[in-house]
Amino acid sequence: MPLTADRKKALRTLGHNLKPVVTVAGKGLSEGVLEELNRALEDHELIKVKLMVADRELRHQIIGELCEKSGAELVQEIGKIALIYRAAEKPNARLSNLLR
């Protein structure tokens, strides 16, 4: 289900103070990166991903692949940082960035 404009605005507000928990570097989307991404999304639901890629078009492509492979939705992209969201199956109130 796509995020509404109001929901994206609320998520951007919550994500403002978050630090990136996943970094995609020169090797791109490896299995380890995808596993860590899925673990972080299941734990926190709303996360920032840092992309250490210089080419803007390649960054857009990697973000699209990240969202597609993880089932997450892009909330916001600013420079080399992407804010993505995926609802957890069993949210943990101590870990979730939405339930605090």
TrEMBL record:
Record keyword Membrane present: no
Domain CRM residues, every copy: 1-97
InterPro entries for this protein: RNA-binding_CRM (IPR001890), RNA-binding_domain (IPR051925), RNA-binding_YhbY (IPR017924), YhbY-like_sf (IPR035920)
Domain of life: Bacteria
One family name in Pfam for this protein: CRS1_YhbY
Keyword tRNA-binding annotated: no
Gene3D superfamilies: YhbY-like
Database matches in SMART domains: CRS1_YhbY
Sorted UniProt keywords: RNA-binding
Signal peptide: none
Alphabetical list of NCBIfam families matching this protein: RNA_bind_YhbY
UniProt protein name: Ribosome assembly RNA-binding protein YhbY
